[in-house]
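Progress against Task 2.4 (sequence-to-structure conversion) is shown through the following example record, which the project officer requested during the mid-term review.
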Amino acid sequence: MEPLDLLAVGPHRDDVELLCGGTIAAAVARGRRVGILDLTAGEMGTRGSAAIREREANAAAEVLGVAVRENLRLPDAGITNTDETRRRFAAVLRRLRPTVVIAPAPKGRHPDHRVTSQLTRDACFLAGLTKLDERTPPHRPRKTIHAIAYREDYVKPTFVVDISDHFETKLAAIRCYASQFEGLTQAGEVYPNGEPLEDIVRHHAAHYGSLIRCRYGEPFWTQETMRVEDIISLDVSSW
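Structure tokens generated for the chain above:
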């Protein structure tokens, strides 16, 4: 399989659409090869079923234009960071060979979200060990970043991606999950304020966009400090 430029990881079907759907659409529009890895089938969800969510996820993948969408089939509401799950995850990384991996925020109200964040980092490291599985070549993604949309309570974004031209595509992908979102005022890490879910998502994206002086944005955090080669090229005016 041709290596991926970007792999977005979510514990449940619909998480990546909410967290970084605009970034995915923007990367695809630039000709990048992008994939999505859902860790569970979402069988514990209050609404819908695993079968319905699979159909919705496939429809959302078409809207976003990703090259591949796979599911690791870990237990919903029971994701663990163990030797077994790390190895299963690492095997997928060695096969898909992404350059950059997007993980959820290190903090969150759903245990699956928090565990997925660290599990992703650990699997990315292990995937680069030659002796992990000598039947497959090692591959360690160059960068792991965390999508921190809706989690402003604990960290400032390292950077924000301009998704102004792709925000409506993000919403179209979210709308594919009618069983999960139709008529709701909250979902995942999106806390309610009484407005329809789409309006809250739009408000958040507009806020993040304002941080980089654009209409809509999605925030990310990295453990590593970002490097600048030419200080004169720094973007976003101070005034």
